[in-house]
């Protein structure tokens, strides 16, 4: 039979006795089709450098009579960073790292014609391979018998793919430890169905594949192709959150692993992150690292990650390649990266709403995967992410990529405002911004702006309109300036400003009790003064060494060490990595006008604050940059003039030709340096290995609590001082 634009060669269910040529490992039933490539126009804004074997855009017709699909695809020019490297073992046993030149590739993303909110991510390297979503169904396609793009292909729905019943290894206990009590979805901040943030965010991803994965795939080329297919799909999934994921490095271990890859996912994760800290961080810049392993994790676990760890030393996860189809491990990586970005399991949030039923794939942050691949993020995942990206330590994902950081240069439709563009809302089929012309990436007729917290209905908001609320007593509210669509840079009170229980430090008010509640849960508090005397005896300042807590839940995911002093129980909590104890936070008050600084109790003068608020004329306060942060309606730099008066003068001069018209178009993003990850040489081995405890503190009775698997680090009294 022949359908429109294709030939249907037959269905291939897999009953006993079926001819081997019709069998496809791991697939219960499929259709054999011959895709037809459609002639297409020259790609929009295809730059001269975009020439090569694979076109910038391509369309295919595939399917069966009565339900054929037309796929429109565009090359993913954001897939590879320009600093992309590959590290592998040469035939002589030496390690080789190559920085590959800008190269043509065959990985595409797009949509299905006639299906709103559809999506597709495919490779055309050796036939068509990948996924597309149309309506409620997820379809997979792959070549048969090494066929090219017009040869025989298997087309099937995701539920017909046999795969391991998978769960995430992140436990509810560890989520409780890091995220605290769950808030009902009804009480969480509402997030729109569209892109979560007006500011595009960008994850620079490094992927490591272990020797077991290499043995399964058989060659470095096969590993590279599979990893690029995986990252292409992860990037597509995150685009609905206005995130882009670009691969900046691939490391292939073909002749043994650089640490123990254990069937116990928690051990493998700890070893992986320790290796990252001592080896990878110093030699290749990246935001996040993911291990893809061919080792079968125990039980149903297929992935494990550190929660809220993006941009930190623990920004990474381990993932089992558990499915014949690369979409399986891609879904796992998307899930575990979600944990890195502060997302909870959907089941843990009362009232969490997933717009896709489980039978249709469900949502990405479900604790387990069903017979079909997850398709989207739930509303509570969006709320979790929105909360997480406001944290000051998440600046690495706020860095907008430079023009040279992406292979291929500026492209209209990639959601980044680049050279020659006034806006970029994505491909025309995805763009829902009426202020932006998706075809030209220019503002629509009559529009002043297309995005930004100070842009409303294509107009720049008036001066003094709030655009970023005050998060706490050490934060400062920001207001629109009436000229730009972006909210001004996030600012907070000057370090050393008094706050409830202490002094402001980098936008928060650190206290011993607050940190104990964060670590040990509701009801926890700082331990008695006598506990902290051991930090003093070791040469630390008052209350500036190891943190001692009291109260809170009795059962903790991490190990604790406890000892009794003067009838008082003193309890210290091991760090997540198990190689040290939680320290008293920097900036915590340790006396009158004194704070913990570099492990010592020091005078507030270490902040070099100068109370510039006195120069703000009663209409502002001093911020962290030691500049006046003016109250609503007052103009910087000294808050002496009303903002409306200043604006009127600028516009008057512009009309008279005295100066340029105030800028109303999109501005470049502010760049924040990523925080360097601290070095940690610890490696976790056998799960029965002893957790850290303070049994070697002289003259004290000690008991070890918890079950955190960690290295033997028997601290002495000197070990309690955090330097």
UniProtKB/TrEMBL annotation:
Domain Disintegrin: 409-495
GO CC terms of this entry: membrane
Listed CDD domains: ZnMc_adamalysin_II_like (cd04269)
Species the sequence originates in: Propithecus coquereli (Coquerel's sifaka)
Binding site for Zn(2+): 335, 339, 345
Keyword annotations from UniProtKB, A to Z: Disulfide bond, EGF-like domain, Membrane, Metal-binding, Signal, Transmembrane, Transmembrane helix, Zinc
InterPro entries associated with the record: ADAM_Cys-rich, Disintegrin_CS, Disintegrin_dom, Disintegrin_dom_sf, EGF, MetalloPept_cat_dom_sf, Peptidase_M12B, Peptidase_M12B_N
Signal peptide: 1-29
Active site positions, chain numbering: 336
Topology of the protein relative to the lipid bilayer: Single-pass type I membrane protein
Subcellular location: Membrane
Originating gene: ADAM8
The name this protein goes by in its record: ADAM metallopeptidase domain 8
Domain EGF-like: 608-640
UniProt-listed GO biological process terms: inflammatory response; positive regulation of cellular extravasation; positive regulation of membrane protein ectodomain proteolysis; proteolysis; regulation of cell-cell adhesion
PROSITE patterns named among the record's database cross-references: ADAM_MEPRO, DISINTEGRIN_1, DISINTEGRIN_2, EGF_2, EGF_3, PROKAR_LIPOPROTEIN
Region (Disordered) location: 661-685, 704-723
Domain Peptidase M12B residues, every copy: 201-401
Record-level Gene Ontology MF annotations: cell adhesion molecule binding; metal ion binding; metalloendopeptidase activity
Stretches assigned to coiled coil: none
Disulfide bonds: 467-487, 612-622, 630-639
Lineage, broadest ranks: Eukaryota, Metazoa, Chordata, Craniata, Vertebrata
């Amino acid at each position: 039979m022949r359908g429109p634009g294709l030939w249907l060669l037959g269905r291939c269910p897999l009953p006993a006795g079926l001819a081997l040529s019709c069998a496809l490992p791991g697939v219960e039933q499929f259709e054999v089709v011959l895709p037809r490539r459609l002639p297409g126009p020259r790609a929009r804004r295809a730059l001269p450098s975009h020439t090569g074997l694979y076109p910038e855009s391509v369309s295919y017709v595939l399917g069966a009579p009565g339900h054929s699909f037309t796929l429109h695809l565009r090359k993913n020019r954001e897939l590879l960073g320009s600093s992309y490297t590959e590290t592998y073992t040469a035939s002589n046993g030496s390690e080789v790292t190559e920085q590959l030149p800008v190269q043509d590739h065959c990985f595409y993303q797009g949509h299905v014609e006639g299906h709103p909110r559809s999506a597709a991510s495919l490779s055309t390297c050796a036939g068509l391979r990948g996924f597309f979503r149309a309506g409620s169904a997820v379809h997979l396609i792959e070549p048969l018998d090494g066929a090219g793009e017009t040869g025989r292909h298997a087309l099937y729905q995701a539920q017909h793919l046999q795969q391991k019943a998978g769960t995430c290894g992140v436990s509810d206990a560890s989520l409780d430890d890091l995220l605290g009590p769950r808030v009902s979805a009804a009480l969480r901040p509402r997030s729109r169905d569209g892109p979560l943030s007006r500011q595009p965010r960008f994850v620079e991803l490094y992927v490591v594949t272990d020797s077991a994965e290499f043995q399964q795939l058989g060659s470095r080329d096969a590993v590279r192709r599979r990893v690029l297919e995986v990252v292409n799909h992860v990037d597509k999934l995150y685009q609905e959150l206005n995130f882009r994921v670009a691969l900046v490095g691939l490391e292939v271990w073909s002749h043994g692993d650089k640490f123990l890859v254990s069937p116990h996912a928690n051990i493998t994760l700890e070893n992986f992150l320790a290796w990252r800290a001592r080896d990878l961080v110093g030699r290749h810049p990246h935001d996040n690292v993911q291990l893809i392993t061919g080792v079968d994790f125990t039980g149903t676990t297929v992935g494990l990650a550190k929660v809220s760890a993006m941009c930190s030393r623990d920004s990474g996860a381990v993932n089992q390649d558990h499915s014949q189809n690369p979409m399986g491990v891609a879904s796992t990586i998307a899930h575990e990266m979600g944990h890195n970005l502060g997302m909870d399991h959907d089941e843990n949030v009362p009232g969490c709403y997933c717009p896709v039923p489980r039978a249709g794939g469900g949502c990405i942050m479900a604790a387990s995967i069903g017979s079909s691949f997850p398709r989207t993020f739930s509303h509570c995942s969006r709320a979790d992410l929105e909360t997480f990206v406001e944290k000051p330590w998440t600046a690495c994902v706020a860095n907008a990529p430079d023009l040279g950081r992406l292979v291929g240069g500026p492209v209209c439709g990639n959601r980044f405002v680049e050279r020659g563009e006034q806006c970029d809302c994505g491909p025309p089929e995805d763009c829902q911004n009426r202020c932006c012309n998706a075809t030209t990436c220019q503002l629509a007729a009559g529009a002043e702006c297309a995005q930004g917290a100070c842009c409303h209905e294509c107009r720049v908001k008036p001066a003094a309109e709030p655009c970023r609320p005050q998060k706490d007593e050490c934060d400062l509210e920001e207001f629109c300036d009436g000229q730009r669509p972006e909210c001004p840079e996030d600012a907070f009170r000057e370090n050393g400003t008094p706050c409830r229980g202490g002094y402001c430090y980098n936008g928060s008010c650190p206290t011993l009790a607050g940190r104990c509640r964060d670590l040990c849960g509701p009801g926890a508090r700082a331990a008695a003064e006598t506990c902290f005397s051991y930090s003093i005896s070791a040469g630390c300042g008052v209350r500036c060494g190891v943190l001692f807590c009291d109260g809170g839940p009795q059962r903790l995911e991490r190990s604790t060490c406890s000892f009794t002093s003067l009838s008082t129980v003193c309890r210290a909590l091991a760090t997540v990595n198990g190689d040290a104890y939680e320290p008293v936070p920097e900036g915590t008050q340790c006396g009158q006008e004194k704070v913990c600084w570099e492990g010592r109790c020091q005078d507030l003068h270490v902040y070099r604050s100068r109370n510039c608020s006195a120069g703000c004329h009663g209409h502002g306060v001093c911020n962290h940059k030691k500049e006046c942060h003016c109250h609503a309606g007052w103009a910087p730099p000294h808050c002496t003039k009303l903002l409306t008066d200043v604006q009127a003068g600028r516009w008057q001069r512009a009309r008279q030709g005295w100066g340029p018209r105030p800028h109303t178009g999109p501005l470049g993003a502010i760049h924040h340096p990523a925080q360097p990850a601290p070095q940690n040489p610890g490696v976790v081995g056998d799960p029965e290995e002893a957790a850290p405890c303070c049994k070697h503190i002289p003259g004290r009775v000690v008991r070890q609590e918890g079950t955190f698997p960690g290295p033997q680090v028997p601290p002495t009294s000197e070990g309690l001082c955090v330097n």
